[in-house]
Design goal:
The complex is a heterotrimer of chains A (288), B (284) and C (492). Chain A is mostly helical and 288 residues long. In chain A, 69% of the residues lie in helices and 0% in strands. Chain A has a domain of 178 residues: MetI-like fold. By secondary structure, chain C is α/β, with parallel strands linked by helices. In chain C, the strands form 4 sheets. In chain C, strands 2-1-3-12-6 form a 5-stranded mixed beta sheet. Chain C has a 4-stranded mixed beta sheet with strand order 8-9-7-10. In chain C, strand 4 and strand 5 form a beta hairpin. In chain C, helix 19 runs antiparallel to helix 20. The termini of chain C are far apart. The chains are: A mainly alpha (288), B mainly alpha (284), C alpha/beta (492).
Chain lengths: 288, 284, 492
Amino acid sequence: MPMVERKRNITVLTLVGIILLILFVGIPFYWVLNLSLTPEEEAYSPKLFPSNPTLSNYFDLFDPSKAAARATRFENFAGPVVNSSIVALSVTALSTFLGSLAAYNLARFNYKGKTYASLYILFAYVFPPFFLMIPLYILMNMLKLGDTLFGLMLAHLAYTLPFSTWILRGYFMGVPKDIEDSALVDGCSRFQMLWRIVFPISAPGLVTATIFSFTLSWDDLIFALVILSKAENYTLPLAIAFFMQGGEVYAWGELAAATILAAIPPVSLYLLIQKYVVSGLTGGAIKG
Amino acid sequence: MKLNKIADWLYILPALAVITFIFILPLCYTFWISFQEKVLGGSPKFIGLTNYYNILASGAFYTIIGNTLVYSFSAVFFKALIGLAIALLLNRKFPGRGILRAYSIIPWATPAFAVAFFFILLYDLKGLFNRILGFLGLPALRYLGPDLAMFSVIFVNVWRGWPFFFLGFLSGLQAIPQEIYESAEIDGASRFKKFVYITLPNLKTVFFTVCLLSLMWTMGDFTTIYLLTKGGPLDKTLTAPIASYLKAFATGANIPEAAALLILLLPIYVILIYLVMKYAYGRA
Amino acid sequence: MSQEPKKVDRRKFIYAGLGAVALIAIGAAAYIAMNPPVVTVTKPTTSVVTTTVPTTSVVTTTVPTTSVVTTTVPTTTSPTEKKLTVWARSAFVAANNDWIKKMCLEWAQKTGVKVDISFIPVGDYSAKLIAAIEAGTPPDLCIHGFNAISFAEQGLTVPLDDVLNELGKDDLHPFKLKQGTVNGRFYCLPDHFEIEYVLARKDLADEKGVKLPTSSLEELYQASKTLTDKNKNIWGIGWPLGKCYDAEGQFLWVWYNLGGKPFLSKSSAGVAIKDDKAFLDTVAYIRKFWDEGLTPPDSDGWTDASNNQNYIDGRIAMALNPPSIYYSLMTGKPDLAAKTVIMPAYPSTLDVGEESCYIFAKSKYIDEAKDLIVYLFKDKEEYRKGMCENGNYYSLPVFKSALETVSQQWQKGQAGLKAWLVNPVEVVASIKWDSYRVLPGLDECVGIWEDVEYGYILAEYMQRAIIGKEDPIKVREDFHNRVFELAKKRYG
């Protein structure tokens, strides 16, 4: 009899729970979507449903002439998007590359001091990045990289690199050693083996690490705030923040549209890798 | 043979070098400048412990610590609660479960700055929440005013962060073999007993790992609070990251003093870092 | 067995060296980046900027958008090429920004000196500028910039007496002359008058029988009370109480009008806040608005844009602000503009237009920078039209000759000045103080007062007293001590 009870999987409680979940997650998105579809004149006093739904907010973001009326709006939304993309992609490339080398090292090699190296990297993984805002700001200025995207990229590297390393270490450790050993016996060099065998098997892990690096960089506000000065260099979080905070009038329709657009890349990337999220972040401590 | 050993190190050397130059050395530099004082456009002067004294003498320091702890622990608590609830909910098999699982990840995948803007729009006097209150005939609330600011920012952090706990707990739940439950049922255990004596203990590892990591991240959360309240009306939501930023780059524009503030805050984080490292390294 | 390891070793060594190469690549890139190749708005070949003087519509320029990465262009400026880095504070009225940009590019074309100009938003300007100075990379020249007196006091900027003479010292309005003088020398050229007005809904005032203009603080309070209509969701006045310059400005307006004097002399001993009764009166006055609900309940979180936005949305009947709102109204909501009147903020209004042009001493191109400043203002008519009239006289010109023109325009009801109840030039003549530099009772500018405001220090204490409901006497004392510390560091 207990078995039968088990099979009835959707109870009333479950249904209530599901509805609450849908509402909890969905309501904020609904509201912002609503605002983004409301014509700008009405956007500061929005209604519950967009009465004259329009996509104009989305298009206006890319229109420099619309920026004229708002002193702090970016000329063209594409600008910050490009800046963010450049930074995020380079950070991702570098940290995945260096991280995978380091992670493989930590996962497989055995040498004196390996524990220290591991702990060193773990420390950097766990340490909150905001501690670095002052010294990195000073460092970037010293290197004449202040207010450059390159400087920002280095700053991001400071915490995405340990991140990637730790995630990939977990993955590499999950690759069965036997395959590697037999490959070695067959005459592969270490690097060849990395390339031909380990990488393909841990492809999901690599993809995960890549996507995490990308979104970490995409999301970053604090280092962009500290390192960048001129509006042309602003990345997305910064551009939208100033758009919102400054100026003479608000532009909530456009703000809502900008926010939604800014959220699309990370969300879609995460949905791709949803299976691997948890195991990645915990370094394999918890299997996803 | 020697070459072997050196080559081993070469794999990890770049990563270590980057981390040293962009992470460790800057930290040491922070320590170094906290003992100095700098006038605009002038050269730094060594002033010993004055910065530290100034910070400790001001009441704000304790407010900062208090706010940071309240914010972090409350947020993690609620995130864990909601995460567990949803994990239990979605642990059973039913049609549409996969979609709901993907749906649940979305808040966490959304960038923190986007979530902050969402809630700025929601918390506004004419935003959705007040509209609903209006329907019910209740007066509008000032969510970002001095009384409610802390709750409001915690809510935003929780709204965004619970899926992390959800995913962790879900995988933890799915790792528990069915047989244990079945044999417990045969022994006549109630649902409650099953939960308390089987489910919870098996989630212990997950729980600690996820909680510690999340606590660490929440204590370092800058974006959410900065965009919503910038430290809050009357310092009500002034946490460590915000305070450091404001002191260094905004109101004070006093970088050495901000450096001292960071060093003073370090102990709280270090304890946590130690715990996390011990736990994470031990398990991984 | 002994064969294999050797092969493996060498290959491994070579391939693993890739990692080291990556590190070297980073270093090399950093080294290359040491020649900051910032190439933004420079050669004006493509940018024939045709800014048409608009009447009501928004100016569109054809300057190529500069919003793309500037770091990938590996060109370096040759040693003989001169380049001026200009940081302009983004004005509230886009027309102003466009004019500044246009003039700079024109000058660049005429003289062959490159101009790299950036517009930085208000809330950020001060902090970024200070950060740049700290980093050793300040711009050459600031236009419409903040903290000018403060920098001058710290010896960071160069005197501009020669620029002043070239532009005609006698033509500069005496108040503006005062606003740019430190220790007897002229250090910065304020580039506009920005007068605090009260914008009011004439239709609502007529409906409720409120007489405009209000001529005293008490009348303003009464008018706000009468105009507050909770049923229609209209509040009498928008009183910003958030951490913004509007909030600070409004506080100071009340404080000075009530006889407040923050300083008795420009020294730490001269800080007179803790004995200043007017401070307490000010707190009491503003609290009335907050406690009695005469201002929207979210005004404690307002930014500089909120006042305007609320007025445009019809939520507040009056707003104390420079008429930048009016410009937005004219372009966006002309019917609301028709119902709006602009009246001076009696008893005595403030100038909040201290934004100035100044040159950093560390600049390598001081003469060129001076030349640019002269070029911007030399043609007074061009300046008046481009900077002031274009923005519907949100800004007023600083030169007496130009002000005369404005006066005549008002008398003829031209240039959108119909909504001004009083001749703006007369109002200018009555200005005694500004919020940042020219303080009651003092003959010279006080630089640290700029720091107190730009750093939102005043806002902090104001919020504590008015919203936090702390004991105003304690707050006053704390504020006094804070200013005292700053004065001690600067003046001894």
